[in-house]
Fold each of these.
Amino acid sequence: MAAAKPRSIWNGWVSWGTVNVPVKLFSATQSQGVSFNQLHAKDGARIKQKRMNPRTGKEVPYKQIVRGYEVSPDKWIVLTKEDAQAAEGTRAKVVDIEEFVPAAEIDPVFYDHPYYVGPQDGGEHAYEVVRKALEKSGRVGVGRFVLRSKEQLVALRALDGVMGLFTLRFADELIDPGSVDYEEAQKSPGAKEVDMAAKLVDALAGEFKPEKYHDTYSEAVMKIIEAKAKGEEIDIPKVEEAESPDDLMAALEASLSGAGKS
C-alpha cells in the first residue's frame, strides 16, 4: 500500500519587492518515538482528560472555550477568532521576505521547526526560479509570517531540489550563554592539550549522513514491551558513570591511539 502524500498545512505567498510566488507549506518532520497512554494502575483503565470549570465542577464543551489574557488579578480580556485575524493584518497569507543573508551567518541555535515549501498550481515556474536563485547565491531569505495565530520569524532556503522554510527563534527568546552558572577552570588549557584534542577531533572527522543515526532508545523500549508481553522478566542494567581522568593528556593520547586503530 503506497504511503499517503503529505497534505499542505498552509497556502499563501512568498513575497519580496514585487515578486510574489504562490506556495504551499508542508511539515518536514514526523514523530517516530514510542507513544504511551495513561492508565489507572489498579485496573488498567485508560485515563481521559476533561476540561472542567473549577467554579461549577462541571465539564465544559470545547465549543464553549475561549482564549483569555489576564491583564490584572482575575481580570481577563477574551480574544475571539476575529480579534486574532485583526492582529494578523492584511498580510496574513504572505511570507514577507525582508532581506537575504549568507546561510553561514545564522547560528543553528536560532533554528526551530522545519517545513517544506512547494508551489501552488500555476506557480511552478516562479517557484523554480526563486529556488535556483537561492541555491546559486548561497543566501537565505529572512522574513516573517503568521502561522497558527503566532508571528513566526523564518528563513527560506534552497534544499535538495526543493525549498525549505525554517521557523527561527527571536533573539529575546534565547538565554544568554554568559548567564549559565558553572565553575570556571582554575587554569587555562595548555597548548599541547588543545592540540591533542584537535587531533582527536580530526581523527574522528567524517561526513554527516543522517541515515546512519536512528532512535536506539525507542528500539530498546519496544524490545522491553515485547518481552513483557511474553511474560519475560526485565533485567535492569547498572548505569555506568563516566569519570573525569586524573591525567587529561594521557586520556587524550589513549583516545587518539584508539581512534587511529579503529
Note: The chain is about 25% helix and 25% strand.
Amino acid sequence: MSEQKLFLFYKKFGIYVILAITFVVFALFADSFLTQRNIINVIRQISMLGIATVAVTFMMIGGGIDLSIGGQVAVTGIIVGTLIINYGFHWSIAIVIAVVVCVSISLLNTFVAEMLNIFPMIVTLGTMQILNACANVMTNGRPIYGMPDALVNLGQGYIGLIPIPVIIFVLVAVIAWFLLYKTYFGRYIFAIGGNPEAARLAGINVSKIRYSIAIIAGVIIAISAVLVLARNTSAQPNPVANFAFDCMTACVLGGVSFGGGGGKLGGAIAGVFIIGMLNNGMLLMGVDPNWQGVIKGIVLIIAVGIDCVQRKPKKVKLRAVTADEPEH
C-alpha cells in the first residue's frame, strides 16, 4: 500500500481501527473492564468529556482552541454550588447563571484574541491560569457539599436503562452535527478555519462567526460543567484534571485539524471513546498516574504529527502549481 493510500485509509477508518484495538487490549488485559457496572461508568464519564469535546470541535474547526475549559468547569460548578447552598437559589436558576458565566468567559476569550490579534491558545492559556486560581480562592481548596437531589439526578440518574448524561450527550452531538454539516453557518465555520482572509473576501463576517462559535461553545461547556457537578455531588476546585488536554487529544486523534478548517465530529467522538477507555483501562490495570499522562501525551504528539503530514502534500502541490505558472 502506497503512502498516499495509507494516509487516505487512516483518514477514513484509522480512528475506528484504533478504537477497536484499544477496546480489545483492555478487554483482554484489564480486570473488570467488560463488567456491566464498569461499562456504564465509562460511558457516563465519556459523556461529560464528550460534551466538552463537541465545544472544542467547533472551536478547532473554526481555527481556534480553548485551554481554559477545565477552569471554566471548575469555576462554574463552584458558582452553581455557592448559589444553591449559600444563597438558596433554585438549582434551575443556578444552571441558567452557569450558562451565562461560561458564555461570558468564552466571549471574553474571543474578544481579547480578536482585538489584540493574539492566537486563541495564548489567550486561553492565561484564562486557564486565572480560572484555576479563582477556583481555589473561592473555595479555599475545599469542596462544597449538599447539592439537591434533583440536580444530582442529572449526573447520576437514568431514563430506563440509559444514564441521563448519555442522553444529553447524544442530543448535543446530534444538534452540533446538524449545525456543522447541514447549515450555511457550519460551512462558514469550515471556511474561516481553513482561510479566514479568503472567507472575509468571500463576504463572510469572520468576527461574527467567531463570536457565534464562542456562544455555542460556552453553552455546551456549561452543560458539561453542570453534569460534572451533578456527578460528583459537590463543587470542587479541580473536578476535571487535564480536561482541556483530553478534549484536544480526542479531537486531533479523531481527525480534527489542529490548524482549523477540517475534521469530522464523528471522528472526535470516537476519539473521546478512546481517551475514556485509556483513562479507565489504565486505572484498572494499576498504571501509575504519571505514566498515564506520558502515554496520553505520546498519543497527542502522534495524532498532531499525522495531521501535519496529511496537510503537507496539499501545500507542496500548491507550490508546485504556482511555480509552473508562466510569468507575465
Note: Residues 289-324 form the longest helix (36 residues).
Amino acid sequence: MSSTSPRESAPYEPDASFAPSARGAGAEAATDRIAAAAYVVDEATDAALRGGLSEFLGSLQIRRGGIRAAAKAMESQMSPRVLIVDVSDVPDPVAALDRLAAVCAPDTKVLVIGERQDLGFYREVTRHLGVDEYLAKPLTRDSAASLIGPFMAGAEPDRASSRGGRVVVVCGARGGVGATTIAVNLALQLSESTQGHIALLDLNLRGGQTAIMLGARPGPGLRNALEHPEDVDALLLERVAIPIGERIRVIAADEPFDTDPTPTAAGITSILTLLRQRFNVIIVDMPMPPSPADRQALLLARQAVLVLGPDVGSLHNAEQTKRMITGLIGGGRTLTVLNRADAPGALKTEMVTEGLGAAPDVIIPDLPKPLSQAANLGQPALRSCPALRRALAPLTQEISGIAQRGKGSLFRRLTGR
C-alpha cells in the first residue's frame, strides 16, 4: 500500500507502516500470488464478505484467525494483492498492524475491519499507518460491496458518487406479497434506530398505499415532477413531502385510475438527486415489473430489498427479478425477505429456501391480525406489533450498519460507514 501523510503529532511511533519505503520483505514478484485474502474472527463478518463480494469469491480466500493469523501467514508466503484483516480480537490493533506491515508486500492493499468507531482511530490507521480502508463493525453486505468491492476489481471507491443519502429500493416478487408494508415499517424503524432523516418515495402513482398506511393523504405535484423534470426544484419538497413525525417524509401520489402517468427516467433522477441532498436514506416503493423509467431508481440504488411470499408464484418471479436487479446494480446488493412465513396453506420455509437456492436473508412471520388492524387504522404496524419489529431488525441493521437501537456513532454519521 502507498504511504499517506506523515506523523506530525501522533501519540506513538510504530515500528513500521504500510508504506513502500518501510517494507522490503516479500516484495518480490511471485507467480503464485493470490488475488485477495481475508482473515476474520466471526461468522457475521464472514457472511457479510461472502454476500457483498459474491462476484469475487473465485479470487477471494476467506480464512479464520484475524490479523494474527494473517501476519503469521505472510511470514511464509507472498502477501495477496488485497488483504482484509479483522483486528477486533486483539487488544492493541495498532501494534498488530505494525507487525503485519513488517511482513506485507509494499503494493498490497490493506483493508481493516474492527470494532472501534471513533474518528480518531479511523484517521490514525488510514492516514498515519497507511491502511487503505477501515470499516467498523457490524460489517454489512452493502459496506463490503461498496468499500471493498472496488479494491477487488482493481480500483478504489468513488467517494464523490457515494456522497448524499443512500437509495434503497423495495420491490415485490409479485403483487400482494407485502412489499409496501415492509417499505413503510422499514422506513420507520430506520428513523428510530439511526435518528436520521428518512424519505419514503412511492412510485406507484395509481393505487399506491404508503401514504394510506401512515394515515396521510397524498397531495398533487409528484406526477408532474416525474413527467417534467425541469420543474423539480428545492420547493418541491414543501409541496409534495408529507411529514410523518419529525424525521420522516412521504412523497406519494394518488392519480385516478383512468389516467396514464408517464414518468421519465430524468424525472426520477431529479427527484432522487434532490432527496439525497436532504435525507440520509430514501426508501423507494417500486412497482413491479418496473417501467423503463422506474429502472432508473434501481440504477441509483445502493441496495434492493426483494420481498416474496411463501408461494410458487413468488419463487417463479424471484429468480427473474433478482437477475434483473443484479444486472442493474451488481451482485451482493439484493436482500431477500420472505414475508408471511409459514402461513396456513403456504409453502414451508424449507421449501422456499430450496426453491431460492439459498435461505432468505430476512424472514417475517405470518402476522395477519396486527397488520390488518394497523392498515385499517392508518397506523404503522411497527408501533403495535413487537413481532414485526423483531423480524425487521436484521434488515434494518444491514441497511443502517448499526447493531443496536439508538443514535449512531459520530464515526458512522460522518463517514457513512
Note: The CA atoms of residues 310 and 352 lie 6 Å apart.
Amino acid sequence: MQDIIKRVENKDEITASEAIKLYDLDLITLGKLADNIRKEMYGNKSFFNINRHINPTNVCKDICLFCAYSATRKNPNQYTLSIDDIVSIAKDAHSKGAKEVHIVSAHNPNVGLDWYFGAFKTIREALPDIHIKALTAAEINFLATEYNKSYDEIIDLMIKNGVNSMPGGGAEIFAEDVRDKICKGKVSSKNWIEIHRLWHNRGKKSNATMLFGHIESRQDRIDHMIRLRELQKETGGFNAFIPLVYQRENNYLNVKNFLTAQEILKTYAIARILLHNIPHIKAYWATSTINLALLAQEFGCDDLDGTIQKESIQSAAGAKSANGLELEEFVNLIKNSGFIPVERDSLYNELKVY
C-alpha cells in the first residue's frame, strides 16, 4: 500500500487495480492524499455558481428503475411546460442573478423537436448573456432515435439554437450488466461516450456524472472513472466530474444497503486521485446533502454546484433540494466550513471571490 501512496504523491497515473486498493486505506489518510491534490490546484477555494435548474417535463418513454421523477410509473401527475413557461422561468431566474439555466427533462415522445429546440432558441433570444446548459447524452440519444436523426444532427441543432454546454447526466454507471438492470433501453455507455466525444470535437465543454450507491460494485465505479479519464485524454472536453449519490425513495430499485458517509467520501477522494486530467470534482449537494458536500471539500472536491433555486428530479427521490439555497446562506455555509467561496461561471471562470 505504501507503494501506491507514493505513486499518488508523485502524481503518477493510478491503475484500476491500484485505485481499488485505495478503498482499503483509512478515511483520513485517503482524504489527505486527495486534499493535497485539491489544495495544489485551487488552494482553499470552493466554487459555485448562481444557477436555476429547469425540468420542463416528467413524461418519459424510458423506464429506469432508480428514477422517481418519471410520470409514467409511480408519479401520476404528468406535466409538460409550454415554451412560454420555460422562458418565463428562465427570465425570472435571470432577474434574480442566475448566470446559468440547467435544462434537463424526461424523454417525452409527445412534444416534438420544435418544443425542445424552440425553448432554447427563445431563451437565447430573450437572454443573450445567459449560459444554457442543456440536453444530456441520454436525451440526445432519445431525440436522435425518436426522430430518425444522427447524433451529429442533434448536436448541430443544439449549437444552432443557443446551447452552450452539456450536463453530464445519463451516464449512471457504465458497466453494461448493471446498466441492463437499472436503465435498460437508455443510451448505452458506448454511445454516451461517443456523444460527448462529438460535442467536445466541436470545441464545446461538458460535465460527466456517475450514479453510485445502488447495485454497482467498487470495481464498476473505478471502471467508470477510467473510461472518462481515457476520453479526457483524447478530447480535454470535460470541465467537471460529478459523483451522484443514489437517492433511495419512490423508485423500484429496492436497494437494501445504503452507502455510509465514509464510503461516499472515499469515492470522492478516489475520483480526485484517479481523474488527474479532469479539472474539477463536484460534490453535488442536491444528492449528497449540503453538509456532506461541504465536508467533501476536504476530500478532494472543489465545487458544490450552485444555488439551484428549484430542482425536481433528485428531490422526487428524497433529496432536500426542491427549493435550492439562497445565495447568502450558500456563501455563509462555505465560509463557516473554512473555505473561500468563489462564484464562477459555467466554464469555471472566476466571477467573484467572497
Note: Residues 311-322 have pLDDT under 50 and may be disordered.
